[in-house]
TrEMBL record:
Organism, as annotated: Dovyalis caffra
Domain DOMON: 46-159
Signal sequence residues: 1-23
Entry keywords, A to Z: Electron transport, Membrane, Signal, Transport
GO cellular component: membrane
Name recorded for this polypeptide: DOMON domain-containing protein
Pfam families: DUF568
Entry's localization field: Membrane
Main location: membrane
InterPro entries registered for this protein in UniProt: AIR12_DOMON (IPR045265), DOMON_domain (IPR005018)
CDD domains per UniProt: DOMON_CIL1_like
């Protein structure tokens, strides 16, 4: 039987607690203000999660994209109706601007050096808002009506800084270039 020293045992316990708390799945997350989402997915990179309610009668989807982030960084989630990567995606971005308020807006991504300025998307977007709670930034929106499809390509992103109220470029290696996938808004 191995004998573990008290400091080593304490370190192991603390590390276990950190790993358990950081591995919280989207299913166990509770939004403030009694917001409830029927579906969610833990995204494989960038410590991010997507929650949604799809309304077939109106072909709209209410989304909440949340990701771990500092108060000086930014997050974005997008649908790409024309491809599988960043270019062509229709994004929602959130960050703190220079006056200290948290803002969220739509922006089309037309190139790898996109301006990330507010702009119209190829589908309607309403009720855009954002929150920052416990080092997690969340952007909320209602999208649609979407075209006849519930299966979409989506991308998500995070960056470390905002300059002159515009998100700066994100890292172009590792998880930041792996943050894309296919998604079906219909349950099951």
């Amino acid at each position: 039987m191995a004998i573990t020293s008290t400091p080593a045992l304490l370190i192991n316990i603390l590390l276990s607690l950190v790993l358990i708390s950081s591995a919280q799945t989207c299913l166990k997350y509770t939004f403030p203000g009694n917001q409830d989402f029927n579906s969610c997915i833990d995204l494989p990179v960038l410590q991010a999660h997507l929650h949604w309610n799809y309304l077939p009668s109106t072909r709209t989807v209410h989304i909440a994209y949340r990701a771990n982030q500092t108060s000086t960084g930014w997050i974005a989630w997008a649908i790409n109706p024309t491809g599988t990567g960043m270019v062509g995606s229709q994004a929602l971005v959130a960050f703190y601007n220079s006056n200290g308020s948290l803002i969220a807006y739509p922006t089309p991504i037309t190139s790898y050096s996109a301006s990330m300025q507010p702009g119209a998307l190829s589908f309607q977007v309403s009720n855009i808002s954002a929150t920052y709670i416990h080092n997690q930034m969340t952007v909320f929106a209602v999208l649609g009506p979407l075209q006849n499809e519930t299966a979409v390509n989506h991308v998500w992103q995070a960056g470390n800084s905002v300059i002159n109220d515009i998100p700066s470029s994100h890292t172009t290696t590792g998880p930041n270039i792996q943050s894309m996938g296919a998604l079906n808004f219909l349950p099951g």
